Amino acid sequence: MSTSRTALVTGASSGIGAEFARHLAAEDMSLVLVARRRDKLDALAQELAERHQVRVEVVVADLSDPAAPRAIVEELRERGLAIDVLINNAGLSGSEAFLATDWSSLAAEIQVMVTAVTELAHLLAPGMKERGWGRIVNVSSLAAFAPPGESLLYTGIKSYVLNMSQALDMELKPFGVHVTALCPGFTRSEFHQTMGSADAAAKLPSVLWQESDEVVREGWTAVQKGKPVCVPGRVNKVLSHAMRPVPFRAQYVMGRTFNPFAH
Known about the structure:
This protein is of the alpha/beta class. The strands form 2 sheets. Strands 3-2-1-4-5-6-9 form a 7-stranded parallel β-sheet, sandwiched between helices. It has a two-stranded parallel ribbon with strand order 7-8. Helix 5 links the parallel strand 5 and strand 6. The N and C termini lie far apart (52 Å). The chain has one domain: NAD(P)-binding Rossmann-like Domain (Rossmann fold), CATH 3.40.50.720. It is built from 10 helices and 9 strands. The longest helix has 29 residues. Helix 4 packs parallel to helix 5. Belongs to the short-chain dehydrogenases/reductases (SDR) family. It holds the Pfam family adh_short. It comes from Aeromicrobium halocynthiae.
């Protein structure tokens, strides 16, 4: 991989985002790491720069701020950085029922995982198209194939990411830009602690879990091959196919039966 390639990774401070940064640095890519926690980003940047002798830039930003995507791109312009690879990984999910959650929290969830994902692609894809090469990975979820869950925006949001990614891939692939929706299932990271669902997740069978580096390897291979959708892991592939034919009425019942907010 040419060292002229530069990748921007959001949510790079831990989990799948940090593993994407490690994987791309190992392929001699320069990196721009984006997240809210400067200490985590600085530590990762130092690790990758020393291990792989690549350029690593840090941009501290909160993607729940509507101004963040454009501010990030402006910062890139000031630093003279053109982005060839975009990893839209930053995530957020509520831990309370819809009506028990204040609007600012719901708006932040939508901003981080819908608006910022879409806006960053809209801002950075034109440069990729002009240069005739680009890769965009939008981290969706196995939940995108699942029935809706009572009170959860998450399944709807991830379904949007899945469909939006495929639509962008159709438009951009003729110009050398591949877009892939990466749809992992249960992945060992900080996400479930942040969601407040760590206890419930810990009770799940080990066969359902993947490590972040496994997810990243499959996702990067998929986008390089031009696959618009990647469901990593054999078990997840089976589950995604099994969930698709479920009738809408059955989906509704399932969504209420497995309600994480039920008391």
